[in-house]
Each structure stands twice: as structure tokens, then as C-alpha cells.
Amino acid sequence: MEPTREHVKIREVGPRDGFQNEPEVIATDDKVRLVELLARTGVPRLEVTSFVRPDVIPQLADGAEVLGRAEIPEDVAVTVLIPNERGLDNALGLRERFQEVNLFLSASETHNRKNVNRSIEESLAGLEQVVARARDEGLRAEGVISVAFGCPYEGHVPPERVFGIAERLVAAGCEEVAFGDTTGMANPAQVRDFFGAARERLPGVELTAHFHNTRGQGLGNVLAALESGVRSFESSFGELGGCPVPRGATGNIATEDLVSMLHEMGHPTGVDLDALLQAAREAQRVLGRPLSGHVIVAGPVDWHEAR
Question: Of the residues 6, 20, 98, 279, which has the fewest C-beta atoms closer than 10 A?
Fold first, then answer.
């Protein structure tokens, strides 16, 4: 396939989606340092933390402190995850520190119940109010739909249901909708058809793909999404992350693997791959274990001819 040279946007979600899945508490100083390293890689969007209850995700209990302390260049759009109106209230105490909010729910009733103890309709009704308040504060809103490609409890998730949820979020004021393959069930053929249909149903909306590499198909799904016109992706450095429910839902696609592939295909991202690898290696040192991304092991592709 000939390189298209179209720019692709990346939102780095490791400091939130990645850290929250780590069993050992990461020191606040380490989080701040890693966020600052990521913020200087050229990523245009960076999800720094979430404002969920500390007893639900203890790893992010220091989220407000990390957000308040981290020195982030002005050209990086800072995102925080907001679960409900109380979370928005807590986040607005640091309103000057972020520009975007992510709001989430699941595309299956069972996963939504297990994740947030609400029905889909209850979640939607609540998020519609949160989006309205966020927009009044001048914040950009992204709706995130988990298990959009398949649910570990219910199996097949009808795309019609997913698109209906997305339309509600857009009507509420979301400018962007991310579709999450939360437990890595998607395959490239499915992804290609899904985003082809999504572009028809949601004209003018920024469509973002959020893939997990649970079964090793993450980058294949990226390629399928690219071929369907998607130019916005979410990923996590070092392939960190997962999903709190169910067990075994392993990490997001690695940002360094995604950036490496996009650059090799001719898609600019504005991200400095070497700086990104430095951040991933520092995360590896902080966590005290090897990370599972590929480029962190193999290094970037070197096309210099042997002499």
C-alpha cells in the first residue's frame, strides 16, 4: 500500500489507563516524572489521570496532585477521565490544568453493570448532564464506548447499539467518540466494516480507535481502521493497561509500536519515537519489570545499508 502521508493523531493514555492496572502503588514523584517525559515526546494529547473515587482505583488517588504538579507544554492538550458529576466537580478545582474530558460507558449492559453499577440508560442520562456542564466550562468532550467490538460476558455487541449510544453522546455535545476494544476481541475484518459504517452514521464527528492487544491483533486492527479512514488513536506507552473487569484483559497497544508502524507507513504523527522509547524505558525501570511492547526490545527500524 502506498504511503498516504496523512497526519494521524495520538492520545497517550498510559498515565491513566496504564497506571490504573498496576498492582503496586507507583510513587507520585515517579508519576509526575513519567507524565512530563511523555508530554515532551510530541504527543498532541495526553490523558493524565481520572477523577474516580480513590477506593475504586487507589492507584489514581493522587491524580489531582499529579495533574497539579506536572509541567506540561502548552501545545499538549491535557485530558482527564470523568466518571460522573461528582468527578467533574472534583476536577474543576484544577480547571486551568486541562482542556479535555473523557466520559465513558459500556456498550453491553453486563459490562456496564460490573464496571460502574449502572444500566446503559442510567449512564447515558448521567453523562449527558456531565457533557453539558463540561461544555459550559469550555472543555472539549470525548465520549468513550467500552466493549464496542465484543463483550466478554455477552459476546456479540450489535454495532447498531454502539452507534445509537454514540449518537446520544454526540447530541449531548461530544465532539469525539472513541470506540474501545476493551478486552481485545476485535479482528481486522470486523474493524474495517465497523468504522466504514460509523463514518456514515456519525458525519463530522472525530472517530477514535482504542485497541487492546490482548490477543495480539492490536496493530492489525489499527491498519484496518486506517484503511477505513480513522486518523485518531489512543494507546499506552510500554503496552501498559488493561480493564478492571474481567481479569485477563491485558494492555493497550503500545504507543511506541503504533508510532513506529505509522511512521514506517508514511503517516506523520509529530511524535519523537526516541523520546517515547526513553519514557517507556523509564516506566520499565520504575515498575521493575520488562514491558511488553515490541519496539522497546527491538528498537526502531534502521534502514541504513550495511557497509
Answer: 6
